[in-house]
Design a protein that fits this description.
Two copies of one chain form a homodimer. Chain A contains 16 helices and 18 strands. Chain A is α+β, with helices and mostly antiparallel strands and about 425 residues long. Chain A folds into three domains: about 160 residues, 2-Layer Sandwich (BirA Bifunctional Protein, domain 2); about 140 residues, 2-Layer Sandwich (BirA Bifunctional Protein, domain 2); about 90 residues, Rossmann fold, CATH 3.40.50.800. In chain A, about 40% of the residues are buried. The interface between A and B is large, with 100 and 100 residues.
Chain lengths: ~425, ~425
């Protein structure tokens, strides 16, 4: 299919071209995240961008894989899928070296993922999703650390504590609520779980109506919908209805919330409506919410998934992880004015006046050897034009080189931000440029 | 298709799993390349991993796209291709902002690329290929800078100058040789060009035989194959047969080689057999060869391609670029013993003795605040096991925390490399760990 001229330069729908200023922003965001997670002892890994499709289907049917994945057949007739999330790949990698790895494993990655979606605010077809996982810790200390990191990442970006909330729930508690406390069958419980997961995107009457629709007349008559709603609207663990408070999962939740409060994560709270979409979560789940009134929604989250590594044919490994989409994060940082002005790495532009390209090489090499990032303007344009370009690129310093400068070995260094200019030696130029 | 248990944990054929030690190596290689190219004023960009297929077919038919690309139809019935090289995408990006960009543009990227190949040494289906391009310089200064960077990258890895050679040719010169000097038709010239490109992979008699086979009887009788072989075996520009020496492209080559020699790139040389596979090259082309006797082959290369941006419907932009595969580079560095021992970023492991996880949190937080990368062993195993794990992970220091340490605020810091141990304060621990 031949496209029109004007369309030729457009990238594939739902993707972004990262021009240097965009890439700089992404690199900055990732470097903040790297700094935070490395403080907690995490090491970076990566997995291939394409996997055999069964890596994604092993964990059972999944809406994202069946409806949104880029799945196709390769030239050797094998079904392959571009990763839609990192969790199955990292679980495969851990399973492959189950015996030889030294636990606890603390791993992070910065993968790009692909989902065939209708592009909209916060959602694109290609996005990056920093993943942070701890393998080998069955106790609540693992959940604590991952949630602490979920918080430390936003703290690393200098987010104000009242600009986000961390909402925490327990899948085990919800199983107890749905199966024991309300008395639903496994199939009903599953349907209700999915409904709860969508609650934030529905109006309250809609949700109540759907809840009633899923339950049978007996359940409706004995007040099950109201009983469930009462649980879902509980604000604190201690306010849970009587019988529930004695479940071990509730004790765990209480302990976790106390640990977080003690560690200064004062905006972590219990929220029985938090389910998380993926089926593989087995216990604690959490979501980090943007608290701005205009954009109150879940930004990212994670939880415990103790069964996934085991699906690859080895003994299971208890795991807790989080995943954080770059588009949502960038929107949050932008809305909260947390993105600093980011500058080009290039520190010095050299403008050449006259036929001095060859003669200037020694100076250029010397500056680079001393550690200066130097861009030479070799366009032979008028000096004014060369300066204009350097300013447009945001390069802080400019050095003009002509015959006279090469003869005397004295140069005029211009600070393009202040327009100050002073004549100095090469040594002085190096120290001035590197000191800023 | 359900795979056997033992196959479950294997990644897709021709791909690599990057465990932390592998990722560390890749990050180190890329950081060396980033440092070098940023010294030359280059800025990082990125493009989507999937492109509309026409981005790759716009430049005409191409063996890689038609036979080796991952091309498929998305859920919206659009033909898409996973990038096989970066050049078409970056050309599209420049074309999209042709008017507003400030030239010369110096851009680099670190993309992963995909080609459906039979995996072998130096070739995988997923590989990374740092790309470095300068846009907007029509003169030889652009070619000079890119070849200088091709050299500076290996110098950045501390490669010895005699371990590689940079072989340079001119497509314009070869056009003159094939069309004017030998008198071939355009079609014949094209076939011969492809044959020359494969010369390094053939035996000499094979090559001579194929050369004869392409030419017609008249050409064979008037000695055309011998004339061409004489050109191809020329070692220095000044030894080219008489008439060729006056071509402007020869003057350019001479100028370029002199500039490189003056800049200290003493292993750059003329080689009329260098063609480069891609059709889009228009003038100077070059390849960097591994000079080890066991593995003498082209590692990477580049050249001038002045027409590609213009194919996207805008005024053309003169461009020179290079691309460098990570697998080939890693093999070269390994063979030449240029890979240093790379360590984990984690600086300190904290072993907990007894039920002190909660109590130790203040110490852990304090250390992280001071900038130390701390991994807490929360496995509750015996101290010996915890130390064993820390050693296996290559963490340099270990701190043991038990009730006694928390009470006295004095800690034993163990250097896991020397096994030395000393009792000290937290301040002392921070300064010791950060100083190494």
């Amino acid at each position: 299919m031949k496209c029109k001229m004007s369309e030729k330069t457009q990238g594939y729908k739902g993707t972004r071209d990262f021009y240097p200023e965009d890439k700089r922003l992404q690199k900055w965001m990732f470097s903040v995240i790297r700094q935070v997670v490395e403080k907690f002892g995490y090491e970076e890994y990566d997995a291939p961008m394409l996997e055999n499709t069964e890596v994604f289907t092993l964990k059972g049917s999944d809406e994202i894989v069946s409806e949104q994945s880029y799945t196709f057949t390769d030239r050797g007739d094998r079904s392959v899928t571009i990763r839609t999330e990192m969790t199955p790949s990292v679980s495969r990698m851990v399973a492959a070296r189950r015996q030889e790895l030294a636990y606890p494993l603390r791993w992070y990655s910065m993968p790009n993922l692909w989902r065939y979606e209708r592009p909209q605010r916060g959602r694109l077809r290609e996005f990056w999703q920093p993943n942070v996982d701890i393998f080998g810790i069955a106790g609540i200390e693992g959940d604590f650390e991952i949630i602490q990191i979920a918080d430390a990442i936003l703290q690393g970006f200098k987010a104000k504590r009242d600009s986000y909330k961390i909402r925490i729930n327990s899948r085990k508690l919800m199983d107890a609520v749905l199966n024991d406390y309300i008395g639903l069958s496994a199939v009903e419980a599953d349907t209700i779980r999915r409904l709860i997961d969508k609650r934030a995107k529905m109006s309250e009457p809609e949700f109540v109506a759907e809840l009633g629709a899923v339950m049978n007349p007996t359940q409706r008559e004995d007040g099950s919908p109201e009983k469930l709603l009462a649980v879902l609207d509980t604000k604190e663990v201690k306010d849970l209805p009587g019988g529930l408070k004695d479940y071990p999962s509730v004790k765990e939740l209480e302990k976790l919330l106390k640990m977080l409060a003690d560690a200064g994560v004062s905006n972590a709270m219990f929220d029985p409506s938090i389910m998380r979409g993926f089926d593989y979560y087995t216990d604690i789940v959490f979501e980090v919410f943007d608290e701005s009134p205009d954009n109150n929604r879940s930004m990212y989250g994670g939880g415990r998934y103790d069964g996934l590594v085991g699906l690859f044919g080895v003994e299971p490994v208890p795991t807790v992880g989080l995943a954080l989409g770059d588009v949502t994060l960038e929107n949050f940082l932008r809305d909260n004015n947390l993105i600093p002005s980011l500058k080009t790495e290039t520190q010095l532009c050299i403008a050449l006046v006259g036929d001095v390209f060859d003669g200037a090489q020694k100076v250029v090499s010397k500056l680079r050897e001393e550690g200066v990032c130097v861009a030479v303007d070799m366009t032979n344009r008028k000096l004014g034009k060369q300066i204009e370009t350097a300013v447009k690129k945001g390069i802080p310093y400019l050095l003009v080189i002509g015959d006279e400068e090469l003869k005397t070995d004295r140069y005029k260094l211009k600070d393009l931000r202040s327009s100050e200019e002073k004549e100095c030696s090469l040594e002085r130029i190096v120290s001035t440029v590197l000191s800023k």
